[in-house]
Design brief:
Layout: H1 4-9, H2 13-16, H3 22-31, E1 42-46, E2 68-70, E3 92-93, H4 97-109, E4 114-118, H5 133-142, E5 147-151, H6 157-166, E6 170-174, H7 179-184, H8 192-203, E7 208-215, H9 225-235, E8 240-244, H10 261-274, E9 280-282, H11 289-302, E10 306-308, H12 314-320, E11 324-328, H13 338-345, E12 349-351, H14 353-365, E13 376-377
Parallel strand pairs: 1-10, 1-11, 2-3, 2-4, 4-5, 5-6, 6-7, 7-8, 8-9, 9-10
Antiparallel strand pairs: 11-12, 12-13
Bound molecules: iron/sulfur cluster (SF4).
Length: about 375
Amino acid sequence: MSNRFDAVFRGIEPLEDAGMDCEFIAELEARSNGAGGGHTNRINFYTPSFKAYETSEIAGCGKSAWPAVSITGGECKLACDHCQARILEPMIPARTPEELWRVATAQIAGGAQGMLLSGGSNHRNEVEYDAFYPTIRRIKDEFPGFRIAMHTALVDERIARRMERSGIDVAMMDVIGAQDTVTQVYHLKRRVADFERSLQALAATSMKVVPHIVVGLHYGRMLGEWNALDIVARHRPAALVLVVVMPFYASAARPFVTPEPRAVGRFFLDARAAVPDMPLLLGCARPAGAVKTQIDAYAVLAGVNGIAHPADGMVELATRLGREVRITPACCSIALGEEVLALEAHEGVRIDPAQVIAHERSRGRRRGGSLAGIPIVRG
Ligand code: SF4
């Protein structure tokens, strides 16, 4: 590997044994016009709160800052092959409007700044929020500073307007670009066009709209991602979140392979090129281990603007690439709107990269500590 990126990579301990692909890194350098982040050189690293974790560089924030709440508990009628409703399991159940009010007010009393509102789908990939809109409105009227991001699933214009009127701040939905994936993975008798119509209806409201593309959704293979990208580019949402399918949720009967990091990296480049002026974020749902390190490094090189709970070494990599590094102590539940809320609400805590790198190296030497004690540079 003999290019600028080589100089950048050498000496970043967590990357040294991550099996980075030198040829592909050269291709990334050639295609990524210097690793700028599209419209901004800043890159934000997000620390989730409801899923306890720590890396060498970023300490986890308090548990209640951005709770995830499900109006169906762990139930979902679709039971998509890549998820099997597992995404709902860690969420706080609130199956009635009264429960939602109790959960939200308890979280607010505990210091929560916002929440992700989600739930399982019916057989039409709709989440039945109807009975909850008056309570959402009441929460927003009584706690106007409390932000609410919602997993909308598929909607029509009437439902999108109801969400808007109830005070939802951020509307998020998965955009699927291949009919075979809709039919086989989601077991859904709907069309790809229904996903575009839903995005269009949401984009016509005042809500901040954040579509997600799940990379490798067709059993670990890439199929409709580029068509989904075209759909997103046509409707100019506030930001685009990419996540990568995690095989371990799938059943043995319908297994998923782990998406190939280079193929995922190439899609990051295509996404950066397709939406150059849009915040492009990598959500926290992605395979773990060395694959995660490769995927995260390719995302930084491709020019994404944010990564939720990044792998070790990413702060140092971004710093060496001359990116302006920011840390945002915000939740991210399977990559979700918090990034956008963080983008909007928090300018992030600008860390002193040199301090972080020194800390990372010392931590590398004595695996286990956290970021505590690193001075934060405000403003
Ligand atoms: S992805 Fe959504 S609709 Fe599919 S099983 Fe998971 S919760 Fe249900």
